[in-house]
From TrEMBL:
EC top class, as a word: oxidoreductase
EC number(s) stated in the UniProt entry for this protein: 1.14.15.30
Location of the FAD-binding FR-type domain: 8-114
Residue span, 2Fe-2S ferredoxin-type domain: 262-348
SUPFAM superfamilies: 2Fe-2S ferredoxin-like, Ferredoxin reductase-like, C-terminal NADP-linked domain, Riboflavin synthase domain-like
UniProt keyword Iron, yes or no: yes
InterPro entries: 2Fe-2S_ferredoxin-like_sf, 2Fe-2S_ferredoxin-type, 2Fe2S_fd_BS, Beta-grasp_dom_sf, Cbr1-like_FAD-bd_dom, FAD-bd_FR_type, Flavoprot_Pyr_Nucl_cyt_Rdtase, FNR_nucleotide-bd
Organism the protein comes from: Streptomyces nymphaeiformis
Pfam family, any one: NAD_binding_1
Xref: CDD domains: fer2, PA_degradation_oxidoreductase_like
Full protein name: 3-ketosteroid 9alpha-monooxygenase subunit B
Protein origin, superkingdom: Bacteria
Signal sequence, renumbered to the chain: none
Alphabetical keyword list: 2Fe-2S, FAD, Flavoprotein, Iron, Iron-sulfur, Metal-binding, Monooxygenase, Oxidoreductase
């Protein structure tokens, strides 16, 4: 494990190859050192948080989804599409070359199927294809179900992974169906038109990633077709406003700070830590040396989601968990404060 001076649990990854996918999108093929390889086991649809040199001299954190599949034997691959005026995407596309090294947090994210055996409906727009492609490849390689992908882009030149998608359809002609939606030919995907296109597949579990207007339209279309909300999964893009690599500040005098203890089950191990009333659970775990998952530390990404088994907590902020999640006990560790003297938490 390599740690930055700020104390974040980052690992160094080597850039093995840079692949120019389109004029605006580059893929980075990455390799973890042998001693960190187990930390980069991942589920289809997850992402990496990279530590980049910031314009102001402070580290900048940027999250990029993995386009590779953990079930095909291929190396780690993230894909970065330029954003007009975007510091991180342009730095990656302009500066990185084979042989360079990057610091990254381990894979995180909950935009991933519980099972690869069911029939799936995948919808992507632009660079939103990245985690969706990971899910599609994984389902085809390790699952038994059928996959339908609707992929929206401005025009034909904007289609990322065009050759890879074509090869997948040729290799799995009876299990994969790809619909390309080109705005230059078909116009913007409206709710009504999406409903017509997706109607035959509305009963499938759906994974949607792309610009906010597209995801909103897809969800409205599927709901109008009777699809239950818990079967529609959205991956949200977000910008990190703070330095997630800063070491967490946790009160030394736990009794003076109030609170109690947390018993946390993670990766088959149980950790008992003092939990001051003013410190988020994630900060307490990291300060205690527990390698808890996280990414944004801002309540926006769900990478640190865990479940309260006993006791009560409150969240300072929550942009991702819905009422159903909260009713089932799920909380964001980066935003959770204790309300009872003892709290039991599980990450399983």
């Amino acid at each position: 494990m390599s740690e930055s001076t700020s104390g974040a649990r980052t690992h160094r990854l080597r850039v093995v190859e840079v692949v120019v996918e389109t004029a605006d999108a580059h893929s980075l093929v990455l390799q973890a050192p042998a001693e960190s390889a187990d930390r980069f086991a991942y589920r289809p649809g997850q992402f990496l948080t990279l530590k980049l040199p910031g314009a102001d001299g402070r580290p900048a954190a940027r999250c990029y989804s993995l386009a590779s599949s953990p079930h095909t034997g291929e190396p780690l691959k993230i894909t970065v599409k330029r954003v007009a005026g975007g510091y991180g995407s342009n730095w990656v596309c302009d500066r990185l070359a084979a042989g360079d090294e990057l610091e990254a947090l381990p894979p995180a994210g909950t935009f991933t199927p519980d099972s690869l055996d069911g029939d799936l409906l995948l919808v992507a727009g632009g660079s939103g294809i990245t985690p969706v492609l990971s899910i599609a490849k994984s389902a085809l390689a390790a699952g038994r179900g059928k996959v339908v992908l609707l992929y929206a882009n401005r025009d034909e030149s904007s289609v990322v992974f065009r050759d890879e998608l074509r090869a997948l359809t040729q290799d799995h002609p009876h299990r994969l169906l790809v619909h390309h939606w080109l705005e230059s030919l078909q116009g913007l995907p409206s709710v009504d038109r999406l409903a017509a296109a997706l109607a035959p597949y509305a009963g499938r579990e759906a994974f949607v990633c792309g610009p906010q207007p597209l995801m909103d339209a897809v969800e409205q279309a599927l709901r109008s077709l009777g699809a239950p909300g818990d079967r529609i999964h959205r991956e949200r893009f977000f910008s990190l406003g703070a330095d997630v690599f800063d070491a967490p500040a946790v009160p030394v005098d736990t009794e003076a700070a109030g609170g109690g203890t947390a018993e946390v089950e993670l990766d088959g191990e149980t950790h008992t830590v003092a939990w001051p009333a003013t410190a988020p659970l994630l900060d307490v775990l990291l300060a205690a040396g527990v390698d808890a998952p996280y990414s944004c530390r801002e309540g926006a990404c769900s990478a640190c989601t865990c479940r309260v088994v006993a006791g009560e907590v409150k969240m300072l902020r929550n942009d991702v968990l819905d009422d159903r999640d909260i009713a089932e006990g799920y909380v964001l560790a980066c935003q959770a404060l204790p309300l009872t003297d003892r709290v039991e938490i599980t990450y399983s």
